Amino acid sequence: MKKVIALALTLTMGGALLLGCGDKETSGGSSQAASSALSGSTSDSSGEKKASGEKFKVGFSMDFTTNVWRAVLLEKMEEAAAAHADEMDFVVTNANADSNKQISDVEDLLAQDIDLLIITPYVTEPLTPIIEEVYDQGIPVIVIDHESGSDKYTTFIGASNSQIGQKAGETIVELLDGKGNVIELSGTPGMQATIDRGDVMHEVVDEYPDIKFLANVNCEYDQATAMQSMEDILQNVNPEDIDLIYTYNDAMALGARQAIVDAGYGDLDIKILSIDAQKKAMEYIKEGAMYGTFTYPWPSEKAIETALEILNGKEVDKYIELETVLITAENVDEYYDPDSDY
């Protein structure tokens, strides 16, 4: 379990609470336009391997696996690659939430003569140059989940975090009818997902001056950190003044909900809106303890499928968007799987 991040709580003159998140690393660019077709160019060596029947070597640079969604992402990626073990050798690195290590990991993969790179960048700006370097060497690059800061990659696969941010903002406005108090629990600064889930949401909600954000806390997408943060918030904000909690993933939503229950406020009508569609979050929705969560599909199988298409000379789209859906009490039974491990 991660060490809980200490939080400095400061009451503003208007009575709202703002918790400092520290300086953010900013993204090097915006989301790419969808569906621009691009030939999946391959290196000479991969073409020779195809002709000789030799297996391809695919490198996967993972950013971190300390929350459940990302651990499952890696598990599903390895399962998908194993299903094609006769066609590829699959080499995995894990940056453990360290941009410098991820850059070094990619350099190590290059030294192993990979034919294609799959990468989920930890933080956009520092990882963009190494992604560009790989691409400029003629090695196809599949970026998944978090986008790169330039268009120097072969294809991106993932859900649109900007679309989620837009829908989250619209949902907050609708639930509060344009007036109310919100707690915002955000994720790692500098991640494209964090930027889109936050900034785009605010572009919508900030048009409504009667919606106030009582706290905005960076909880690093971590359940224990979110739980501690929510405990601190409840010491400084009257729980009855909180109308809605928006968290950037379900792990933080579960932590926030547990803190509310432990503090004796579980019966208050505090709506929780989140992202990921974890099994436990859907159970909370069924129980009425959460309002909703957006699905955030794993790109694992699609990434392996697309990698093989590229290596075999097929054209792929520049942007492959995975659909996201808001799950609420109205449709949760369509998505809830009691046998799911996640």
TrEMBL record:
Query: Which family would the database say this protein is a member of?
Result: Belongs to the bacterial solute-binding protein 2 family.
Entry-linked InterPro entries: Peripla_BP_I (IPR028082), SBP_2_dom (IPR025997)
| Residue stretches in coiled coil | none
A Pfam family (short name) is Peripla_BP_4
Compositional bias segments (type: Low complexity)? 30-45
Superkingdom: Bacteria
Q: Which GO terms describe its molecular function?
A: carbohydrate binding
Recorded hits in PANTHER family, A to Z, give: D-ALLOSE-BINDING PERIPLASMIC PROTEIN-RELATED
Species, as recorded: Wansuia hejianensis
The entry's cellular-component GO terms read: cell envelope
Q: Where is the Periplasmic binding protein domain?
A: 58-315
What is the name attached to this protein's record? Substrate-binding domain-containing protein
Tell me the keywords, alphabetical order: Signal
Q: Does the keyword Metal-binding apply?
A: no
